[in-house]
TrEMBL record:
Family: Belongs to the LysR transcriptional regulatory family.
DNA-binding among keywords: yes
Lineage of producing organism: Bacteria, Pseudomonadati, Pseudomonadota, Gammaproteobacteria, Pseudomonadales
Transcription regulation is among the record's keywords: yes
Recorded coiled-coil stretches: none
Name of the protein in its database record: LysR family transcriptional regulator
InterPro entries: LysR_HTH_N, LysR_subst-bd, WH-like_DNA-bd_sf, WH_DNA-bd_sf
Any one of the GO CC terms: protein-DNA complex
Gene Ontology MF term list: DNA binding; DNA-binding transcription factor activity
Stretches assigned to the HTH lysR-type domain: 2-59
Keywords, alphabetical: DNA-binding, Transcription, Transcription regulation
Species this chain originates from: Pseudomonas aylmerensis
Superkingdom classification of source: Bacteria
Amino acid sequence: MLDLRKLRYFLTVAEELHFGRAALRLHLAQPPLTRQISALETELGFKLFDRTSRTVTLTAQGRAFLPYARGVLEQVELAQVIATKLAAGTAGQLTLGYVSSIALSDLFSQTIQAFAQRFADVQLTLVECASGSLGAQVADGRLDIGLSRLLPQNEQVQALSLGQEPLVAAVSSDSPLAQQAHISLAQLSTYPLILFPADYGSGLNQSIEQLYRHHGVPLRAGPTGRQITSIIALVAAGQGVALVPACTRSLMNKGVTYRPLVEADACAQLLVLTPTHRHSVLVDAFLAVIAEVMPSR
């Protein structure tokens, strides 16, 4: 195996084309430098330099070998830099799970952008999940962190509240409801309500069902969609109405009108899930970025 120190000696001599100047740069006496170059030539099986009493030039083999030697040393330097960043927690991999209704929020986009800018050497992987399985994936390590609307039923996962997000009514633009400034739950109850599938474990479903029960309003279940975009598409197609987080208004579907609700307590929680007993430096860094982004929202 080639000695990295000898490769550095070779590179320095190749740059200086003078053993005396190279020795000064390396803080080394010239005779030991000459011996190290000779030893490297013996290991390689060819001469690197043509030397006279006045000149030093690279041989053809030396010129051909130079970019490879330089490449090896550059990779070693890069590995040292990355190792330092890994030790400091500013490099590595972070897998973030999220539910579809959160991906449209300003908090989500601003946090991802801020984290990516600050930790450019971190490979951030985003995984869209059903909220019912998100907590389990954080618990077993498939996800490092999760953004959800559903409290996990697992003591291996802890949930930090990021606050509440208002719910708005999404109605077909040709519906009479679209002409109103505000819509009540009682008015919505006469229309099929489009939800996520029951087996999807949606935290948004849970918030909506609790809201209807709290106000004593019957919930008339309609079609289901596995994505927030699918739910909005069903509304546009006249298949019912929906209650969605206010951030969904960014989906500017021509056939859908969004209206605030009369009920002031219509909202959905926003949670960040992390493992209870293991916190990586990168998870803590991501939580710190969320905390910084929150006040600016």
